[in-house]
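Pasting as-is:
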Amino acid sequence: MSYQKGFISIIVLAGIVVVAIIFSFTAGYFANKQIAPWTPISHYVACTQEAKLCPDGSYVSRTEQNCEFAKCPEVNPNPTPTPSPAPTPIPNGKQISLQEGQKEGSLLVQKIYSDYVTGLNFPEYPLATTQGFPITLHIGETASNGCTITLTLISIQGNTATFTKKTYANKICPICLAKNTLIDTPNGQIPVQNLQKGMSIWSQDKFGNRISLVIIKTSKTPVPSTHQMVHIILDDKREIFASPGHPIGDGRVFNDLSVGDILNGSRIVVAEKTSYNKGYTYDILPSGDTGFYFANGILVDSTLH
């Protein structure tokens, strides 16, 4: 019995020694261990949800750092202005509406599309013709009879095209001399309508010399029944009927002439507009560099250069 108590005592004592050794080792370890200093945990700062209007019209919000507003975009102090397109003027005149197959003035409309029309144009000046020439017109484009009438396409709605029609009643058109005007030739005076290409006529060179040249071109131009001629009589009895726009050898046209003016060395005693019902006017072009010839003894220029 005493043996058992002695054994238990030895075991208890051994346990105390082991615990003491473990405690001693642990205390030494922690004594030599460096512990990092305590650092406080930073707190997240929430910025208010605000927006700032910038000079260029944009907006910026606050940033997380110090909750200050972000920087606004730079604004160009001298911006280049964007040019505005110039408005398209609508021409003055009478509005005409045409559908496919209809004709007004010189224009026959054949097809109407969403933004353009096609058709035939029948010019009347300087040479009237019964043959139509193909034409395509977009908005703002114009067809003309060659002088007195224009048709400008201004809109298209469905199967109808609308034009602005302008009539120039006083416009000088490039038409020529009256029938039976006598042209000076080396073979005597010959009516203008009887002259042909290759025939000789009297002309004048740039130095004022009277010279014989040959005709290289002739024209016969239909004119409307409303056409007017300028009637000129000189004080030496020379007389001529010519279209208002026909040029004279000194740079003027017949429409420029008035009573009292000098023409070919003589004074004008009659200068008037008169109706003309002969149906055609005539012109010729001689060879050489001036285009001059003598009509009823009066020096004139050609329209056929």
